[in-house]
Every structure is written in C-alpha cells, then in structure tokens.
Amino acid sequence: MQFDFFPSKTLTWYLGKTFLIRILAVLIMLVLVLMMLDLLSNTAKILAYEGNGQAEVLKYVGLRVPQLIARFLPYSVLLATILTLATFNQNSEVIAMKAAGLSAHQILAPLILVALGIAIISFGFNERVVTRASATLTAWEANDYGPVPDDPTLRANIYLNDGNDVLMASTISGTGKNIVMQGVSFYERDDSGMIVRQFRAPVARFADPGWRLENARQFDVATAEVRNLAEPVIVGPGITLTQIALRKVDPDAESVGELRRSIQALDSAGRRTAELRGKWWHKFSGPLSAVLMPLLGAVAGFGLARSGHLLARAIIGMSLGFAFFVVDNAALAMGSFGGYPPLLAAWAPFVLFFLLGETVLIRTEE
Predict the structure, then answer these.
(1) Three-state SS across 233-281?
(2) Tens digits of residue pLDDT in 229-257
(3) Could you read off the pLDDT of 54-85 as tens digits, one per residue?
(4) Where are the transmembrane segments (predicted)?
C-alpha cells in the first residue's frame, strides 16, 4: 500500500470536484422529492388553521428543508460515491488510474477529503440552523400551525406530574414566576390511576403554589357533567418551577452546549440521562458518518466493468452503507434503554464499519 495519498494535484481536483457536484445533485433530488411527499401529507393541516395560506406553507418548507438536509446528507454521500465510482469504473478511468500506479486508497483519498469537508459543514449547519428550525417547527406544530410568540424561552408539549395527577400544556414560555402555559389540560386521578376530573383552559399561570387556570372548563367523569368555570381554579400545587426547568429535553432542538447544560441539570436532579448522552455524542459521530461512505461504497468502483459484476458491486456497496445506518439507529436505541453505554452507542457503529470497509478494500484491492 502506498501512503502518498495525493500524488497528483490535477487528479485530486478532478476527483474531488466530480464527487462534490454529484453529492449536491443527489442531495437536491432527495430533498425535493421528500419535501413534496411531506407537503402532500401536511399541507391540509397547515391550511386548516384559519388565515393560513401560501406564506405559511412556504414557512413550513423553510423549516422542514434543513431537517431533511441534515438527515439525508450522509445518504447523499453514499449514493454519490456509488454513482461516481461506478461511472469511473465503467469508463475505464479506474483502470487508467491504477495503470498510472495509484492504489485504491489513493483513488479514494480525494473523495474522503471532500466527505470530511462535508461532515464539518454538516456539523456547523446542524448547530446553527437545524436546531433552531427544529425548535421553531416543534412549537408551531404544537400550536396547530397557528401564530407562535417570538420567544426564545418557548417550549412545546410539556408533561408534568403532581402525584397521580397530570398536567399537560401544548406550549410554555417565560422564566421563573412569569411562566405562562397555553393549551392546558389537567387530569385529577385517584389512587388506582383512574381519571376523576378533567380541566381544560387556554392559559395557566404560576400561582405559588400551584397553577391558576383561566377560563377553565371542568368535566366530571362520574356525572359526565361539563361546566364552564367563571372563577380561576388552582391546580397542581406540587408542580414547582424546578420541575418546569427540568422539562423533557428535545436533543434535536438544542445545540451541543445547550444539550450539555440540560444533561448536567438533569444529572444534578437525579434524572436518567443515558439517552440524552447518546444523542450528545451522536451530534459528532452523525455528521462524521459521511466520511465512511466513500469507504463503504468503494466496492462499486473496482473490479472489471466488463466482467458483468458492476451492478452487483454497486448493490453490495449500497447494502454496506444502508447497513451502517440500520446498525447506527439500533445502537442508539439500545443506548436509550441502557443496553449500551452512551459513548459506545454513538461511536461503535462508526468504528465497526470503518474497520469493515478497510478490511474489504485491503483484501480485495490492495
């Protein structure tokens, strides 16, 4: 094996430019197709809110596209790898490069360099764009695509316990004693867990202790009677501001620094954080998975095209790439349940498939 990975500046530029163009082309194609499918299922929900129109649909597209880019960028790198190397193989360019003395690793080096640049850009894009878009979209969806206050403290889908009783809110905003909940439902339950009484209110404010429901509607399960309450009612005296601060964390909507602080806060309160720690590590290993794709898809670029095995090699390369994503998701799930330590859950698939890709490449080509 040769270790001078970039012997020709011209060839490096040609391979890298071709690979980058195909990554962008595949990514644009995937995002456009998936965005159209997404709109088919969600446009009706967006327009169901009175006053929503084309502007709101475009707003949804603007918030959803960053999520699609972040999720499918590694897939785009994989498909671009197979497309690029299969084309080079079919046109005998790989044979020409090997005849010039280049090894398989030297042919792949410019592709891996481009993939590394993509991974770095992807990490920054996730931190600066995707997290904010995810937080905004989650809050908007929780508000049934209605107007959402421009508040950085806004959070969505809050679930809190006061003994057997449960308080749920579609959104919550503010800090300290100025916290305001909207779209509130409170369920009084007996010792067996059965619901005895239900309260619904558009707004709830901190009453120190408890939460004051304004313009509430009460439903008694035993009598099936519904009443509109003229006076505010206090519920959930055991739900404190500390519980609000330790709400359910959405790792997709928080940057690395924010998620780390949330994990530390939950740790200090004795809460389980294995799932969040796995997601924190995955914020690094996820974008870096793009670097693996040229290695896993490399099998499509070698071997004689005229042997008739080019399609089979492309399928094998695609299968290796998609197997990585399956194992990666399975490892994260196992980490969430405590089956793997968070660090192992996030990085084990990367290391495993890196070794697998290197083994296949060295045994077959080097």
Answers:
(1) EEECCCCCHHHHHCCCCCHHHCCHHHHHHHHHHHHHCCCCCHHHHHHHH
(2) 888 888 888 887 766 665 567 788 888 98
(3) 999 999 999 999 999 999 999 999 999 999 98
(4) 20-40, 68-87, 107-125, 284-304, 310-331, 343-362
Look at residue 332 in the predicted model and tell me its pLDDT: 86
CA distance to 31, 145, 198, 304, per residue, from 45 (Å): 21, 8, 27, 52
Q: Are 171 and 139 within one domain?
A: no
Q: Do 308 and 322 touch, CB atoms closer than 8 A? A: no
**CA dihedral of 324, 330, 333, 337, whole degrees rounded to 10:** -130
Both 46 and 137 in one domain: the answer is yes
Maximal C-alpha separation, the chain = 87
Range of the domain at 327: 9-144+274-365
Cis peptide before 7 (omega within 30 of 0): no
Residue 354: HSE in the Cβ half-sphere, 13 Å Cα cutoff: 12
d(CA 291, CA 288): 6
